[in-house]
Amino acid sequence: MTTARRPAAFLDRDGVINIDHGYVVRAEDLAFVEGAPAAIRRLNEAGYLVVVVTNQSGVARGYFTEADVGRFHDHLRAELAAHGARIDAIYTAPHHPEATIAAYRADHPDRKPRPGMLLKAFAELPIETRGSFLVGDKASDVEAARAAGIPGHLFPGGDLDAFIAGVLALATTNPVFGEDR
Ligand SMILES: [Mg+2]
């Protein structure tokens, strides 16, 4: 069976999908950024693979475990499903160079601004690089996108659905969008 390749919309998590209270991991601390479920639904309907790429140094710092993060992501997916929105894949970078937990003490290639999570997604998922992009709320997100060879857009806050609609309009009206690498 062949799988048609589709462009991916890479989304940072904290500050893009959920409000960044700092080391969010408890279900009760999930609060969506305005328009986030609608934005993800919009991307689903437009045919993008929605891939979350998130640094979670709280694991390295011993604040919570990878299993805790996984449980939070199950909750996140369930809450999105209630809005008719779907995340296709989530990549997490639990490392930090100054980790308190030795196993996670690394300047790991997955940790943004390095592009490891995006490159892994390109290798593992049926992603068409052309037309793919990233939305993040930090310069390190945009830097990771650039290092992976796709455009990165800095989300300044506000309504994520309106912001994503603007990104998609740009992608549609400018045929060379995304080719400037
Ligand atoms: Mg963020």
In short:
It is built from six helices and five strands. With 181 residues, it is an alpha/beta fold. Strand 4, helix 5 and strand 5 form a beta-alpha-beta unit.
Overall description:
The chain is α/β, with parallel strands linked by helices and 181 residues long. Helices cover 35% and strands 17% of the residues. It has one domain (11-173): 3-Layer(aba) Sandwich (Rossmann fold). It has helices at 36-45, 57-60, 66-81, 116-124, 139-148, 160-173; strands at 6-11, 49-55, 89-93, 127-136, 152-154. It has a five-stranded parallel β-sheet, sandwiched between helices. β1, α1 and β2 form a beta-alpha-beta unit. The radius of gyration is 16 Å and the shape is globular. It is an enzyme of class 3 (hydrolase). It is found in: Cytoplasm. Keywords: Carbohydrate metabolism, Cytoplasm, Hydrolase, Metal-binding.
